[in-house]
Amino acid sequence: MKLRSHLAFWFSLAVIYALAVLPGLGSIHIPLPKFPRPGKHATWSAWQAPNPNTIPAGPTGDSIRYGIQLFNSTPVYAPQYTGNKLACSDCHIEGGIVPYASPMVGLPALFPMYSKRAGHVVSIEERIQECFTRSENGTPPPEKGGEMNALVAYIQWLSQPEPARQPFTGRGLIDLPALQPNPKHGARVYAEQCANCHGKEGSGHPPLIPPLWGPDSFNDGAGINDISKMARFVQHTMPQTCPGILSPQAAYDVSAYIHTKPRPKFNPAYKKY
Ligand code: HEC
Ligand code: HEC
């Protein structure tokens, strides 16, 4: 219950801020209510999100608050580094606190770590740059710039230890068996379970509903541009209002269908990320 009320408080703050302070800035990500989350993988950990009241006043707190905005409305707050209409929270859902939806909680203690894709040890800043050049189809924000500091400050704030808090489990995505996908069946799943939100043409209604393919989506170098990885994300989190209803096979099929569609190309100049 506490987790929900903290989140409700936090997200209503974001909504109030978005409605009261930002009109005129263009598109704003207003998170939709997503509780409860039924489905066999929706196992909530005992971990509780830190209370937004604990964000300190002063420059550190300002940086954390800016990080929350950047994370939830990336194209609005970091347009110079974002090449599509996706926010971090479109994939790292609920502001990056949902187990097995690639959450941010606890990451600072794990970095620097070896990256197979990069072929070397990467810092958390470099890992964030990877999501900018690939998932955001953009350019890497400087490692020591205000945007990067804010995102890292937010992730650190989420990850701060607190005696009363239970350990967070749920890094990465759920496991699914490797299955043979059938994109034809996936087209049917898409029409029945996804098109009402993401649109027949996959362009969504950003910032409320993110695009799945086309010019405003992630590029072909993104982690989720992989049938199995997307299936693992989708089976656990989609359809957004009733996650868990797709069988693993249906999740593979719909991901394979989405992978038949066009999307931006990864810029090889950013291969280092
Ligand atoms: C289109 C979906 C998508 C978007 C948008 C996105 N990411 Fe990611 N991100 C992923 C996926 C998928 C992974 C895990 C990749 C893997 O397992 O190979 C990931 C991994 C990460 C990781 C490492 C997580 C870990 O457990 O090691 C960090 C940090 C991260 N993203 C930060 C961000 C930030 C910050 C933004 C916004 C600027 C962002 N991401 C935008 C999909 C996305
Ligand atoms: C009720 C509306 C709704 C339905 C139905 C829905 N989605 Fe989503 N989808 C969202 C929203 C909103 C997000 C952003 C994350 C969040 O806030 O939960 C999202 C995010 C995503 C993402 C990651 C971000 C991106 O744009 O790449 C993928 C992939 C995705 N959905 C696939 C699907 C698939 C496949 C289906 C059908 C099985 C589906 N969704 C059904 C609303 C929906």
Description:
By secondary structure, the chain is mainly alpha-helical. It folds into 2 domains: 2-159, Cytochrome Bc1 Complex, Chain D, domain 2 (Orthogonal Bundle), CATH 1.10.760.10; 183-258, Cytochrome Bc1 Complex, Chain D, domain 2 (Orthogonal Bundle), CATH 1.10.760. It has helices at 2-21, 59-72, 74-77, 88-91, 93-96, 124-133, 146-159, 183-193, 195-198, 227-237, 248-258, and strands spanning 113-115, 120-122. It binds heme C (2 copies). One heme C binds at residues 32, 34, 86, 90-91, 93, 193-194, 196-198, 209-212, 218, 230, 233-234, 238-241, 246, 254.
Q: What is the topology?
A:
Elements: H1 2-21, H2 59-72, H3 74-77, H4 88-91, H5 93-96, E1 113-115, E2 120-122, H6 124-133, H7 146-159, H8 183-193, H9 195-198, H10 227-237, H11 248-258
Antiparallel strand pairs: 1-2
Helix pairs in contact: 2-7, 8-11, 10-11
Let me know the number of strands.
Answer: 2
- Counting copies of identical and different chains, the oligomeric state is single chain
The shape, in one word, is: globular
**Which value, in Å, is the CA radius of gyration?**
18 Å
The overall pLDDT average reads: 85
What is the correct CATH architecture of the largest domain? Orthogonal Bundle
Number of domains: 2
**Biggest pleated-sheet summary:** 2 strands, antiparallel
| CATH topology-level name of the largest domain | Cytochrome Bc1 Complex, Chain D, domain 2
Helical region count? 11
Which small molecules are bound? heme C
Helix fraction, binned, reads: 25-40%
Residue fraction in strands: under 5%
Which blocks of ≥5 consecutive residues have pLDDT under 50?
1-43
What is the name of the CATH superfamily of the largest domain? Cytochrome c-like domain
Strand order of the largest sheet: 1-2
- Straight-line distance between termini: 40 Å
CATH classification class of the largest domain: Mainly Alpha
Series of secondary-structure elements, N-terminal to C-terminal: HHHHHEEHHHHHH
